[in-house]
Protein: Trans-sialidase, putative
Organism: Trypanosoma cruzi marinkellei
Amino acid sequence: NKKEGTGEASLGMVSVRLTEQLKRVKEVLKTWKKVDERVSQLCSSLLAQKVTSPENVRRTVKLTNGLVGFLSDNFSGNTWKDEYLGVNATVHNKERAQKADNGVKFTGRGAGAEWPVGRQGENQLYHFANYNFTLVATVSIDGVPTQEGSIPLMGVRAGSEGGTKLMELSYDKENKWHLVCGDETRSEELSSTLGTNKKDHVVILVRNGNQSSAYVDGQRVGECAQPKLEETESKEISHFYIGGDGGSTDSTDGA
């Protein structure tokens, strides 16, 4: 608007009722508090089992500090909902996925989920993951795999279409865990026998700048240094994946 006779812009005010928005904010905060309590209980359970975490994850017992997403058993159709009402994961081959206790069970080739980062588009809630992230999962593996090759458990892909494998934790029929950095399999240097015959595991993937590492039940599987994403053609993380990543060997024998 302009003041009469002066041509100068004048400031104006508009009154908007935000009752519904305020109600939504209160509902979200209430949900976050409930999820914090639930996650804290899970953490207490892990501590009771004396699971040791790596140093940069163990700085505080309260793992809800800095926690931005939590996938549990809120699963319907091909949507695995984030309990913090943030970014949902998409389940692939949903006929091979079913709700389990505090999670989702994937069975068979191609079964898995994708948790988007760059694939969210312009509004990227997890953009910080391009620099640092800690991805934690409790995993149960039913039975020993029978096929040759490594079976992906959890990993990260980069590039606009997710064409570059940044890091991946997998396991094989010889009860070995493997950390793969990039598209190069470095199993001899970065493998560890941690007893996959044990059914339940706590898995942690960490990236800090250009340093990536993986831990299973508090023991380091391996680590590697990689160029910072902004210095590569990939530029940014596309998504995290749990289970199959779409490759030819992406199978989970009940995980």
Observations:
- The helical segments are 19-48.
